[in-house]
Amino acid sequence: MVGFQLINGLAGLLIITSLLVILSDRPGNSARFYALQSLVLVALFLALAEATDSHELYLWSASAFVTKVVLVPLIMYRAFSKLSDPKLGSGAVLSPALSVVLAALVVILCYSVVSGVSLPAAAAIKPALAVSLAHFFLGLACIVTQRNILKQVFGYCLMENGSHLTLALLAAKAPELVEVGIATDAIFAVVIMAVLGTKIFLTLHTLDARQLTTLKG
């Protein structure tokens, strides 16, 4: 029982790190906070592996550490840390206070949805499952409410972490090949978006997504 309490507690930290990623004023800092969040996710995988006696999740933890804690943040930091748009600022449409309120409402709504789930595997981890679902929607909200195209990339990464956690919670015995597929997809997606973001900045000299509404032939 203590193991599941730890899992639910670590899941709560994911929401805090998500807000740090979204509200950070510089993409380089967002990359650092994303690495911190991924480290919490790895710790959650380890706690879940211990609680469910899942050897597969130990392998997931090792793979997630290499890809999510090291490779993906390093790629984003090296690609984004030198890009800045002083006129745009952080690019946030919502104030920090409203963002925190929105995150709380999303978590509450997701918990009300998850509370009706009657799966035996989810009985002790409903708070963590609610957080994983909320995490996906927070990533989507980041994409929608951020004008900074680099911060929108982080929104995708938050969505991916939420989906990854949901899979781990509901399918702890899934083979390592599933984790490898998820990690590979995330790395290639981030590389492609980092290249596109850099090209857009070098061409338009701005990171404002509103400047991408006109197509030129």
TrEMBL record:
Its main location: membrane. Keywords: Cell membrane, Membrane, Transmembrane, Transmembrane helix. Pfam families: Oxidored_q2 (PF00420). GO terms for cellular component: plasma membrane. It is a multi-pass membrane protein. It comes from the Bacteria. Coiled coil: none annotated. The chain crosses the membrane at residues 6-24, 31-51, 57-80, 92-114, 120-141, 153-174, 186-207. It is found in: Cell membrane. PANTHER family: HYDROGENASE-4 COMPONENT E (PTHR38601). This is Hydrogenase 4 membrane subunit. It comes from Telmatospirillum siberiense.
